[in-house]
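Customer escalation, tier 2.

The customer says the design service returned an amino acid string that "doesn't look like it belongs to this structure." They asked us to rerun it and document both sides in this ticket. The original structure tokens are below, unchanged.
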């Protein structure tokens, strides 16, 4: 048994022991999970720094679409089977995915968003990264991915997300001072 399979079994072995944990893992794995927090974050962002939100929001949306597409292409290139396709005895609490497993697109997408936000707003990491980790572990818990599928997704997503935000910060007009607004008020706009 490989170390990756051993890690998978250690996390997935907790599945089926608690209805609450199973429900939580399924909820965290749901693609619809992030719509409500995303909308609330967007509204907060618009309230706090409307100019930055109007610029960076669409960039973030495009980034998520791009990394999701790239993750799907990498899956087909690597062609690594999911645990449900290669392991017989494990706790499967969700139907097996239709495509390959490496990298996890859940991990790619969430890490891209977290890295993007943390580069723009360093204080956001204490909220974003624990959610990324919880979603990644939930994907292993329910039997959809190996741990390395998650780690690879986090790396790929963080690389793209951090780079996109860094490039955005290089654009002088992104955080251009607003005429007639006191510098202390502008500091508020750079830290949602």
């Amino acid at each position: 048994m490989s170390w990756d399979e051993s890690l998978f079994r250690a996390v997935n072995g907790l599945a089926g022991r608690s209805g609450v944990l199973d429900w939580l893992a399924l909820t965290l794995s749901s693609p619809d999970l992030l719509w409500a927090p995303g909308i609330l974050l967007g509204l907060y962002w618009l309230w706090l720094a409307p100019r930055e939100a109007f610029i960076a929001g669409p960039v973030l949306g495009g980034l998520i679409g791009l990394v999701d597409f790239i993750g799907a292409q990498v899956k087909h290139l690597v062609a690594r089977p999911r645990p449900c396709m290669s392991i017989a005895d494990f706790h499967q609490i969700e139907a097996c995915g239709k495509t390959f497993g490496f990298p996890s697109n859940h991990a790619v997408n969430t890490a891209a968003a977290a890295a993007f936000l943390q580069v723009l707003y360093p204080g956001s990491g204490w909220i974003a990264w624990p959610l990324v980790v919880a979603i990644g572990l939930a994907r292993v818990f329910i039997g959809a991915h190996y741990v390395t599928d998650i780690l690879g997704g986090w790396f790929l997503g963080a690389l793209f997300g951090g780079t996109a935000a860094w490039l955005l910060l290089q654009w002088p007009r992104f955080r251009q001072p607003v005429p007639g607004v006191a510098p202390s008020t502008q500091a508020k706009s750079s830290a949602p």
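Tier 2 assessment: The sequence is consistent with the input. The radius of gyration is 19 Å. Confidence is low (pLDDT under 50) at residues 181-189. Sent an explanation to the customer and offered a walkthrough call.
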